[in-house]
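Q: What changes when flavin-adenine dinucleotide is included in the input?
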Amino acid sequence: MGGIKVIGAGLAGSEAALYLAEKGLQVQLLEMRPGTMTPAHRTDLAAELVCSNSLKSTRLDTPSGLLKEELRLLGSRLLTIAESCAVPAGHALAVDRELFARSVSDQLERQPNIELVRGEVTRLPSEPCILCTGPLTSDALARELQALMGAEQLCFFDAIAPIVSSDSLDFTKVYSKDRYDKGEPDYLNCPFNRDEYYAFVEALLEGEKHQAHEFENEFFRDLDFSYYENCTPVEELARRGIDTLRHGVMRPMGLEHGGVKPFAVLQLRTENRDRTAFNLVGCQTMLRQSEQQRVFRLIPGLEQAEFLRYGSIHRNSYLNAPSVLAPNLTLRAARNVFVAGQLSGVEGYVECIGTGLLAAKILSEGIPMLPPETIMGQLWRRLIDPSVHNFQPINANYGLLPALETPLRDKKLKKESLSRRSLTALQQLLGELDD
Ligand SMILES: Cc1cc2nc3c(=O)[nH]c(=O)nc-3n(C[C@H](O)[C@H](O)[C@H](O)COP(=O)(O)OP(=O)(O)OC[C@H]3O[C@@H](n4cnc5c(N)ncnc54)[C@H](O)[C@@H]3O)c2cc1C
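A: The predicted holo structure follows.
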């Protein structure tokens, strides 16, 4: 195989470049910094962490801990570098960010099979390449992608609603029903009475927002959410009027239950076939995570909710992956272009490293689909599943995984079993591939 271009020396691109080069392939790594900076990066170093220095938990009873173990089995280079730059952070893998970025940059520079080329890429190459330009992909390249696939296939911010586990819901209050009983009762419904609804709206309005970056504040100040009604933060909708939610996303019509018409209803939509995880429809939010716990637990039936993922709204360039990606993570409209990192539709440092590694392994070894029991296997499946509508970026969470054959009530045991099952399945696949 000839040379491979990797575009973007961030987390995904650095991982992909190191993996390919160590396999003996010639790599041209193209990075626009420092000539053209993103609004968040400050240096010309590869793999610069633009915000937190934490790569989250290493515990095997957490989804991020499991994801790290999967990446270790798959041969991640950046994870090993991160561990060598670790700073004390309890069960989390946190790094000295400067040391980490310098160490990655040094390894890239020392690798004889990698040529690092500085300069903004504005056109997609015709050779095999992995596109890893991240959540702040430059404008010119974003325009090129839009021209290739259609403007609507590239989003510029994400609006994510929280996901809760089904076994934390109070089913004495929550009921299954489709509006006007038109279809299967796929949705779960949380009914509010008048007092509960107004208490919830009040709490939403008082809720403290997370601290956005200055450039994000500017971006959202200029953004007209009325063009993106489905992405408007729930607290912004509530600000339009105390009854806006119950006349809109929380309207109770057709959701009567046991002869009672609720004052308002929050619907929960399933995240997986096993119905172990549900998202709060219309509850994309800019509230801090601790505030999300406080406010969303006021919803009847969610008093003890376990949050598998928190809601968020960020500046983020990402593809409408299920519509535009082929099963091997190439663009359907340009089959030489593999996509990885945040641009491909995953969210989070380790998820970006993971998809960089995955794209490199698909491109260089044609690795088959990973087992459904693994987080990486599920991230891959979600990115290419054409039945997914209203795609939102995905991160590692246990809600992605199929339910255990024998349900376990103990949450810790359940998580450990899910993790053990994943690693066994992955080891088995890798063993078969080695034979
Ligand atoms: C402001 C912000 C804060 C974040 N904070 C966190 C956090 O705390 N924790 C977390 O888990 N995730 C966070 N994320 C999400 C995500 O995990 C990180 O952005 C992560 O670095 C993305 O990895 P990546 O490899 O996809 O992109 P990046 O690491 O951003 O790498 C992309 C690279 O491509 C380069 N590039 C862009 N366009 C071009 C072009 N046209 N030509 C050549 N090079 C180009 C960029 O300069 C950059 O070096 C954050 C995202 C943003 C935007």
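Observations recorded in class: The longest strand covers residues 312-319.
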